[in-house]
Amino acid sequence: NFDGRSDQEVKKLFEKWIAAHDKSYNGLTKREKRFWIFKDNLLCIDQHNAEP
Q: Gene3D superfamilies in the record, alphabetically (predicted)?
C-alpha cells in the first residue's frame, strides 16, 4: 500500500503517465528507477493536496 493507493493503482498511473508523455525506457533498471521517482513525486503531490 502506498499512502492510501494500492501498488496496482500506482503502477497503472505510471503506465498512463508514460503513454501520455510518450516516454520509453530501455532496460528494466532504468524503468524501475523512473518508477521509484514517479512514486516519490506522487507521494509529494498527494501530501500537498491533502493540506488545508
A: 1.10.287.2250
Output the pTM of the full model: 0.83
Q: Count CA atoms closer than 13 A to 16's CA, side-chain side.
A: 6
CA quadruple 4, 8, 26, 29: dihedral positive or negative?
Answer: positive
Q: Reduce the secondary structure of the chain to three states and give it as a string.
A: CECCECHHHHHHHHHHHHHHCCCCCCCHHHHHHHHHHHHHHHHHHHHHHHCC
Query: In the Cβ-directed half-sphere of 18, how many Cα atoms lie within 13 Å?
Result: 15
Cell of 3: 499512502
The residue type at 16:
K
Three cell numbers, residue 50: 491533502
